[in-house]
Amino acid sequence: MQKKRIAVFASGSGTNAERIIRYFRDKNDAGAEVALVVCNRPDAAVLTRAAALGVPVELLGRQEICNREVMDAVFDRYGIDMVVLAGFLLMVPDFVIARFRGRIVNIHPSLLPRFGGKGMYGRRVHEAVVAAGERVSGITVHMVSERYDEGRILFQASVEVLPTDTAADVERKVHELEYRHYPEVIERLLPF
């Protein structure tokens, strides 16, 4: 059986992207491989991580990502079957969502629908959780739809938020959940 080919879209440090790459590279029976990393920021650490792991990178600006011809050519060139968002900060164009409907997922660092939507990413989410006095936070893996963080929820996991926790503490706990669960949830979507 030929492995499904995943494109990971990332904009930042790439810790989740690295975990996903390593998970599928090290698990021979997973049925998938990360064939490409797409990044929109030339200063993103994910570029270095992907290169160190031997995964091709396409550095594309917003204009290119929003251009159907450019993106279709990239997807075709790498034979992409699935898209995984891992800290990607641009809204994914509708034509990409349509092409990969049912095969495009995202991870959000809160228990959606709480603390989701435009502008809610990274440390901002954890600061909002702490400011709201929440006692639980976590992760949500969901299908990507045409609206921020509103796709069908596939998986959630939670962590306790202590009264003494800072946003950095919550972020650390949530990252641990992301690293542990995201690759496995992606694998469960296979085969499609």
| Spatial strand sequence of the major β-sheet | 3-2-1-4-5-6-7
Shape: globular
CA radius of gyration: 16 Å
**How many domains is the backbone divided into?**
1
Describe the biggest sheet? 7 strands, mixed
Helix/strand-derived class?
Answer: alpha/beta
According to CATH, the homologous superfamily is Formyl transferase, N-terminal domain
Poorly predicted runs of 5 or more residues: none
Give the mean pLDDT.
96
SSE diagram, text form:
Layout: E1 4-10, H1 15-26, E2 32-39, H2 46-52, E3 57-59, H3 62-65, H4 68-78, E4 82-85, H5 94-99, E5 104-108, H6 123-131, E6 136-143, E7 153-160, H7 167-188
Parallel strand pairs: 1-2, 1-4, 2-3, 4-5
Antiparallel strand pairs: 5-6, 6-7
Helix pairs in contact: 1-7, 6-7
Describe the 3D structure.
With 192 residues, this protein is of the alpha/beta class. It has a single domain (4-188), classed as Rossmann fold (3-Layer(aba) Sandwich). Helix content is 37%, strand content 22%. It is built from seven helices and seven strands, in the order E-H-E-H-E-H-H-E-H-E-H-E-E-H. It has helices at residues 15-26, 46-52, 62-65, 68-78, 94-99, 123-131, 167-188; strands at 4-10, 32-39, 57-59, 82-85, 104-108, 136-143, 153-160. A seven-stranded mixed sheet has the order 3-2-1-4-5-6-7, with helices on both faces. Helix 1 packs parallel to helix 7 (167-188) and helix 6 crosses helix 7 (167-188). The longest helix has 22 residues, at 167-188. It is globular.
